[in-house]
């Protein structure tokens, strides 16, 4: 299995003719990770009692590869109708208590993230300082969309993570995936505006714009003056809707053709009045 949490898996028709034995063998032994995840995705859709039992048995194996695949299967089992949620949660929770293998632990936390249970927050937060960045990355995914105090505090902490993809996703979680507006969230996002990773900076920019925080204005003006304007900066301009940006956006019309409709939306949002909109 891959170290990262897959965001897309090639879709396999529901009438995939492979048996559960064949799918399990592919999931466990296939060296092509796309094909292995395709088999796991098919097992998710099967969602039968046999698949549950086989996955739980893998989770109790002495073999780390088998435990990892078992956790991967339990995470999304029963698509679109979820299967045996309580049993899956208990199995993954118990695994998390004792697991020492980093890749298995990453798979466990990632699987728990799909269950969307409040108890997952405390489990995931235990690993916020784990030495493996992929485990911390899984923690971020488990907390995205959660709004209790511990989840937010952990996302704020992980928005400062030394690993780029961890802090990028934590910043995205704080800025775009919840509706909360607190001083802690604003400060965490503002701290990322000048992040050395541009994607993280743009996530912070959009997040602050959603909150109406005018600290993004210097960053937006600097972006325009740089001569290289990202679509996220235009999105942020539309969200903050500041008339001071209107002349800059009008100038942008002359050469920026990345997303013309989005630019026009930003121009309308920042227009100081109908007669000055064009």
Helix and strand layout, with pairings?
Layout: H1 20-29, H2 33-46, H3 49-59, H4 64-75, H5 85-98, H6 102-113, H7 119-125, H8 133-143, H9 149-158, H10 164-176, H11 183-191, H12 198-210, H13 217-226, H14 231-240, H15 246-252, H16 260-270
Helix pairs in contact: 1-2, 2-4, 3-4, 4-6, 5-6, 6-8, 7-8, 8-10, 9-10, 9-11, 10-12, 11-12, 12-14, 14-16, 15-16
Q: Which whole number gives the mean pLDDT?
A: 92
Structural class: mainly alpha
Total helix count? Answer: 16
By DSSP, the count of extended strands is 0
Q: Which strand-content bin applies to the residues? A: under 5%
Keywords: Lyase
GO molecular function: lyase activity
Pfam families: HEAT_2
Protein name: Putative lyase
